[in-house]
Write a structure and sequence with these properties.
Layout: H1 2-13, E1 19-22, E2 34-37, H2 43-52, E3 57-59, H3 66-71, H4 73-93, E4 98-104, H5 128-146, E5 150-156, E6 158-160, H6 173-182, E7 187-189, E8 197-201, H7 202-214, E9 226-227, E10 231-233, H8 235-243, E11 251-253, H9 257-263, H10 272-278, H11 286-305
Parallel strand pairs: 1-2, 3-4, 4-5, 5-9, 6-8, 7-11
Antiparallel strand pairs: 8-10
The structure holds 2-amino-3-ketobutyric acid (AKB).
Amino acid sequence: MGTEVVLELQKMFGIGNIICSDIHRPLVEKFDGKFYALDVLDKVALCKITRENNITQIYHLAAILSANAEKTPHLAWRINMDGLLNVLEVAKDNKIKKLFWPSSIAVFGPDTPKNQTPQNTIMNPNTIYGITKVAGEKLCAYYNEKFDMDIRSLRYPGLIGYKSLPGGGTTDYAVDIYHKALKSTTFICPLSTKSMLPMMFMPDAVRATIELMEADGNKLSVNTSYNLAGISFTPEEIALSIKKFIPDFSIKYSPDFRETIAESWPNSIDDSVAQEDWKWEVAYNLDEITKEMISHLKIDQHEVNV
Ligand code: AKB
């Protein structure tokens, strides 16, 4: 996600006006522009970089996702919560009002209405990732009210993109499946056939993020995080979509611990508030995503093989 947002912001505001950071140095090669290797838990370094570069807005995207978080819950809490607190405090101390922070459909739990989950409803997640996202939403709302900040957020569905590999989430299968399909290997799906989940193509997610940040603040009624529907489908449906382009594609199902997480999440999301407040509209449907993923991954594969 970070890679794609930076590229879009560079296009909008010019390479010289976008400072990017990550904990992994390899990222440097991909970017023109200023890059810092930064650990979000290092508040002193974060503050120094913010001051030295006269930062006016922050897109804070560092997080450990659901599946990896279940394996390292304490690290997930530190990165997702202490990291966020560091960014909020540095922003407050440096009078940076506008900030983006990603929440997730993971804020919802087993007792949340599963279909067309509304903006305001029961949020009792039973994953450490989900708990950090609910706590994060409340913390951002607290800083908005207490310190008059302008923190904006989206509850991302599963994101599907071809520019970077998935990062340890429960929805990763919807990216892996395209890579396996192009390698004509049978895809072993970690979720069951009918496990429906809300998903979104990366270009839609990047556009939603920037449209929200550029929206008129007076029109925004949500102080925590906006529902974002994307499209909902099951592993069976995405496999059928791929077969339209790769008829020999085959899939086998071997649900693992991620199935339990997926079962605790909504089937579909109601994002009518986002549509109302900042005129959000999703663009890509499943077959369009499949077409884009296959054509772009083929190009990458060709470049690798040449
Ligand atoms: C995950 O699967 O953990 C993420 C998410 C839905 O937030 N992709």
